[in-house]
Design goal:
alpha/beta, Aspartate Aminotransferase, domain 1, Aspartate Aminotransferase, domain 2, seven-stranded mixed sheet, four-stranded antiparallel sheet, 13 helices, globular
Length: 428
């Protein structure tokens, strides 16, 4: 792939679209430009095959059977947990709890860690840019315990107000629950610094990593957080599987959230004793195939290299940013100095939902709406945005298709103005 001329933009270094079968499927008779990766990523053939191979060759329930197939499936499941551990550099595989996704992981922490410990007047610190999944569980917890939510404001450029953050920290702060990367803006938050400051006042830290793990290397020990949650389907893995990292010393003292199945040690009508973590938090038959598919996805991105993925997406982000800035009537929402591959924008005179529909007819898949971040949209005084979110398989052609489709939408709405451009963000 050739670099665009006169843009000052680095050349993307990856060409992996052929690894993803769905990307060869036309949409409305057009080449698919899939730019809705913040919602879910497409799956490489290696992940599809890994899950199919489990059902074809290894399917059995785990941890209970004495027969070979059960023991084999158990080994694959345990190996998947170890793969997640290595991927985020947890100290032990026992610090990895499989969940259905980020949402369930956060709810687990709220109910198992938060409910027994929070009391009236305790403070939970969030930010304005949180996904609903990192707001609503804490609202419920406040209703149940009398704890209070405190909210870090967001500046006009989409960065957190760090001075306000410092002012909100106090002796009653019990938990900081913060997104690593904003799903609506792409802002990368300074989670290392924020974790350090929260720990200085005695608070625990949960990081929502749903939008981070596919785009940059994550080291939970370097971050220093107490909990880290992410979903498999945003990491080129299956839906219905995710992971919660929790410090071993915290997990050991947390009661189970759900009961039944493999989370027990002994059951009697007068008393039940529970298995140690992580099994204590994995009630019922787990998503065995999903865990194996997640491990295959991690193997895939690790094989590509997280540093290469990050560099590729940053080059595309710069290219796309300049291309959208060159379109009269387009306004970017979220211009933080450090961003992941998310372009959130408005087109003058066109509602984001209408824009999304027109773009779809042109083969361009984006997300339109509030992105499960309604408080953030309220802060900016808008109902929502159009969001193009990048992945390792995207290239210049996808962004060029986005620009062309926006022009088409402006023509249909009669809002297109003559462009005064210096050629930035254009391919030769």
């Amino acid at each position: 792939m050739n670099a665009p001329r006169d843009t000052g933009v680095e050349t993307p270094i990856l060409d992996l679209a052929t690894d993803f079968p769905i990307l060869a499927r036309p949409v409305h008779g057009r080449r698919l430009a899939y730019l809705d990766n913040g919602a879910t990523t497409q799956k490489p053939a290696a992940v599809i095959e890994a899950e199919a191979r489990f059902y074809r060759e290894s399917n059995a329930n785990i941890h209970r059977g004495v027969h070979w197939l059960s023991q084999h499936a158990t080994e694959l499941y345990d190996d998947a947990r170890a793969t997640v551990q290595r991927f985020i550099n947890a100290a032990s595989a026992d610090e990895i709890v499989f969940t259905r996704g980020t949402t369930e992981a956060i709810n687990l922490v709220a109910q198992s860690w938060g409910r027994p410990r929070l009391t009236a007047g305790d403070e939970i610190l969030l930010s304005t840019m949180e996904h609903h999944s990192n707001i609503v569980p804490w609202q419920l917890m406040c209703e149940q315990t009398g704890a209070v939510l405190k909210v870090i404001p967001v500046q006009d450029d989409g960065e957190l107000d760090m001075a306000a953050f410092e002012g909100l920290l106090g002796e009653r702060t019990r938990l900081l629950a913060i997104t690593h990367v904003s799903n609506a803006l792409g802002t990368v938050n300074p989670v290392v610094e924020m974790t350090r400051r929260a720990h200085e006042v005695g608070a625990r830290v949960l990081v929502d990593g749903a939008q981070a793990v596919a785009h940059q290397a994550v080291d939970v020990r370097a971050i220093g957080c107490d909990f880290y949650a992410f979903s498999g389907h945003k990491l080129y893995g299956p839906t219905g599987i995710g992971a919660l990292y929790g410090r071993a010393e915290l997990l050991r003292h947390m009661p189970p959230w759900q009961g039944g199945g493999d989370m027990i040690r002994t059951v009697a009508f007068d008393k039940t004793t529970f298995a140690p973590p992580p099994q204590r938090f994995e009630a019922g038959t787990p998503n065995i195939a999903g865990a194996i598919g997640l491990a295959a996805a991690i193997d895939y991105v690790s094989g590509v290299g997280m540093d290469r993925i990050h560099a590729h997406e940053q080059a595309l982000l710069e290219y796309g940013t300049r291309a959208l800035q060159d379109i009269p009537g387009v306004r970017l929402v979220g211009t933080a100095r450090e961003k992941a591959g998310i372009l959130s924008f408005l087109v003058e005179g066109i509602h984001p939902h209408d824009l999304g529909t027109i773009l779809d007819a042109e083969g361009v898949a984006i997300r339109a709406g509030h992105h499960c971040a309604m408080p953030l949209m309220t802060r900016f005084g808008i109902p929502g945005t159009a969001r193009a979110s990048l992945a390792l398989y995207n290239g210049y052609a996808d962004l060029d298709a986005l620009v062309a489709a926006i022009h088409k939408a402006q023509e249909l709405f009669g809002t297109r103005r003559s462009e005064e451009t210096n050629g930035r963000g254009r391919r030769p």
